[in-house]
What does this fold into?
Amino acid sequence: MNKRVEGVTEAPSLKEKVQLAYSAFSRGDMDGFMAHLCFHPDAVMIEPDGLPYGGNYRGPDAIRKGIENAVATWEDFGGFVEDVAASGNLVYVHMHVMGKGKASGEAFAMPIVEVLRFRDGQLIEFRPFYFDTARCRSCFER
It folds into this structure.
């Protein structure tokens, strides 16, 4: 996705970095996901407290573990990106996710928006906004 202008290669835009990262994630390439997002050492991912994996995850290693833990709470977890938009240092990812709660076997599907904030080309804040956290939580109950 790099642009070539008179022999000079431009770095990918923030939107392009995010698109590459989510494409890697959809292929199960967590290393690629992490690399494309260029996490700042002090980056934080903030998951809603009402979910079993809720809380703040600080630093690239903790964020990776948090994402892996979140995905592991679901069976048949999947999704697709509907759209990616960028404005300044923010990138918005509109997605649809689906799966089943491991404890309940209850299926769910819903849209979410993830907001990614960058500083100097590095991801500093990662925050998903679920359409219905109560619905997610109900999938974890037996």
